[in-house]
Design a protein that fits this description.
Blueprint (H helix, E strand, L loop, with lengths): L7 H32 L9 H28 L2 H23 L6 H14 L2 H6 L17 H8 L27
Helix pairs in contact: 1-2, 2-3, 3-4
Length: 181
């Protein structure tokens, strides 16, 4: 999509995913370090728990790398990134609504943000950036009259070489100098 400029909202969404990835990487690394300390029995927790904590840390780092890939896809206008962003925003709306039904009001902000993301991703310029909606072709410029069209329209005589008007009885074109045929 090199011919279309990236919409500002797509840039912000890609930046949001990069920030999410940074937080997930830091959290994942912290859990892996915590798991290493737990393995040594420092915190008085059973030793097998360290494995669960370390696995969660590794999973967070893997998810962070996926978010970085999604941010790249959004940045470069890949169609798959548009689809994945739609799916993530729709899942966020569903989870937020379910959280509201069960009695919590904390997810209202997430619900509003995900609904705005869904709305934004369906905007025509955003869909066109990702190649999901073809932009209408600009109208064709009016055709320039050809020599034969001008001759038919005016009934006059014109040079077959340059298209300049010919006067009655001329043997050479006064514009280009070619012999009149």
């Amino acid at each position: 999509m090199a011919s279309l400029t990236r919409p500002i909202g797509v840039t912000l969404l890609a930046a949001l995913h990069v920030l999410q990835a940074i937080v997930l990487i830091l959290g994942g690394l912290a859990l892996m370090v915590l798991g290493a300390f737990m393995r040594r029995g420092i915190f008085g927790v059973p030793r097998f728990v360290h494995g669960f904590v370390s696995v969660i840390g590794v999973a967070l780092v893997v998810i962070a790398l996926l978010y970085l890939g999604l941010a790249w896809g959004l940045w470069t206008g890949k169609g798959w990134a548009w689809i994945i962003s739609l799916i993530l925003a729709a899942l966020g709306v569903i989870v937020s609504v379910l959280s509201l039904v069960t009695g919590g009001f904390g997810p209202i902000v997430v619900l509003v943000l995900d609904a705005l993301i869904l709305y934004y991703l369906f905007r025509p310029n955003v869909r066109a950036f990702f190649g999901e909606q073809k932009t209408p072709a600009p109208p064709a410029p009016p055709s320039t009259p050809t020599i034969s069209n001008v001759q038919q329209a005016t009934g006059g005589h014109y040079c077959t070489n340059c298209g300049g008007p010919l006067h009655e009885g001329e043997k050479f074109c006064s514009y280009c100098g070619k012999p009149v045929s």
